[in-house]
Specification:
This protein is α/β, with parallel strands linked by helices. It is built from 7 helices and 10 strands.
Length: 292
């Protein structure tokens, strides 16, 4: 039986560890479910069900972050999630929070999105009260996910030029100070141009040009869009604050803590794309482009 009131599945993973950190910063010590049996975690395997009954015992809320986008996705996300609510219900768990992805119902050509959508349906059909939070994902230049998104915009958005004259701006972040960041921004700018969008440059002079250093946002001296750098052992939360989106009135703002790469575009009202859940009327941030 767990001593924690909140259990985070996949709590040792990329997403789950961030959730665990946020809870601890709020003086909440969650249980961390992991199949790896790392120190400080609770052993449990969604693939086999081993250890799940003991893990959820005494737990009030489960934050379900466990996922496997690259291998065994269906077994982990769908079959594992199918096991979890049944066991949790018997243990008296009162709420399940499932972290999903914005736009998964619109890009069904991407297999992982189909898996996530199927998992959502399982959560919705479970006997336990639930919350499904669709969050945005970082996009990685050259990844299948970003390429699928770009291809999906052909019909009807590109053919009907639905995004014509919308404002667009780009940002990128990586551990390396170069990391081919310019190529990233060029690809995003080219994509926006194909859709007839108006590209907004960064509009800042380069900084970080003296031996004294500086806290300038444009320390990597970019003009096409924001280039940020964050150490690999610290993650993008410590990247410099971007200025992208502050120049044009009414345009969207990039997150104050940028993900790896993305495109931001004008939306009906000022918003921070990554700082709150998506709601009707906001841009489809699957690819950081309005889904109109």
């Amino acid at each position: 039986m767990s001593d924690a009131e909140i259990l985070v599945t996949g709590g040792a993973g990329i997403l789950g560890s961030k959730v665990v950190g946020r809870l601890r910063s709020a003086s909440i010590e969650p249980g961390v479910l992991s199949h790896s049996n790392r120190p400080g975690t609770i052993r449990g395997d969604l693939l086999t069900g081993e250890g799940l009954e003991a893990a959820v015992g005494g737990v009030d809320t489960i934050v379900h972050c466990a996922s496997s986008p690259f291998r065994k996705a269906h077994q982990t996300d769908v079959e594992g999630t199918e096991r979890l609510p049944a066991i949790a219900s018997q243990a008296g768990v009162s709420h399940v929070v499932y972290v999903s992805i914005v736009g998964i119902d619109r890009v069904q050509s991407y297999p992982y999105y189909r898996v996530k959508l199927e998992t959502e349906r399982l959560i919705e059909g479970s006997p336990i009260p639930h919350t499904i939070l669709r969050a945005t994902r970082p996009t990685y230049m050259g990844s299948a996910e970003l390429k699928v998104f770009m291809e999906e915009t052909l019909r009807p958005r590109f053919l009907e030029q639905r995004w014509k004259d919308k404002l667009a701006a780009g940002f990128t972040n990586s551990a390396g100070k170069s990391g081919d960041k310019l190529l990233v921004l060029q690809q995003l700018a080219g994509f926006a141009a194909q859709h007839g969008m108006v590209w907004v440059t960064l509009g800042q002079l380069p900084g970080w040009q003296t031996s004294a250093g500086s806290a300038d946002e444009n320390r990597l001296a970019s003009f096409l869009g924001l280039m940020a750098q964050s150490n690999a052992d610290q993650g993008p939360d410590l990247a410099p604050l971007p200025a992208t989106g502050r120049r044009p009135s009414g345009s969207a703002s990039a997150s104050a803590r940028p993900p790896t790469a993305g495109l931001v575009a004008a939306c009906p009202r000022r918003c921070r794309l990554h700082e709150r859940p998506w709601s009707k009327g906001d841009p489809d941030t699957t690819g950081m482009i309005p889904g109109t």
